Amino acid sequence: MYNIFYKNRQSKIITAVEKPFPTEEELEKYLMNTKEIFSDIFILKRQVNVGKDIPDIIGVDRDNNIVIIENKNVVVTEDILPQILRYAIWAETNPDSIRAM
After folding, report:
1. Which residue from 2, 6, 7, 84 puts its CA 20 to 30 A from 13's CA?
2. Whose CA is closest to 3, among 33, 58, 16, 14?
3. Assigned domain for 10 exists
4. 25-76, pLDDT tens digit by residue?
5. What is the chain's alpha carbon radius of gyration, rounded to the nearest angstrom?
6. How far apart are CA 13 and CA 34, in angstroms?
7. Owning domain of residue 59
């Protein structure tokens, strides 16, 4: 079983959940409702169509870096890399779309 862990502002590691999520949607809902997990990220939008892909969450961090989060409710392999690279290329080549969010 895989767990979600995050570090709070006091640098304590917190176990977010003790059981697997039944769906990716449930995972995303949990993440969005647990503000401590993304405390350093300002969420701009969820489920954005960026061509043939739809990243789960787009945000910006405290240093104004674009943060794109793709949730997977399964163990991932290197097969995810092309999808992640498409997101990075989209973010790099579409700054106006991100500003509009």
Report:
1. 84
2. 16
3. no
4. 888 888 888 877 888 889 999 998 888 889 989 999 989 889 998 888 777 8
5. 14
6. 15
7. 23-100
11 domain residue, yes or no: no
Residue 2 lies in a domain: no
Residues 18, 23, 29, 34, Cα dihedral to 10°: 20
Instruction: Please give the tally of structural domains in the chain.
Output: 1
- pTM (predicted TM-score): 0.74
Give me 25's structure tokens.
């949607």
In a domain, residue 17? The reply is no
Chain-centre distance for alpha carbon 59? 8
* Burial of residue 57 (number of CB atoms within 10 Å: 0-12, 13-18, 19+): buried
**What pairs with residue 58 in β-bridges?**
45, 68
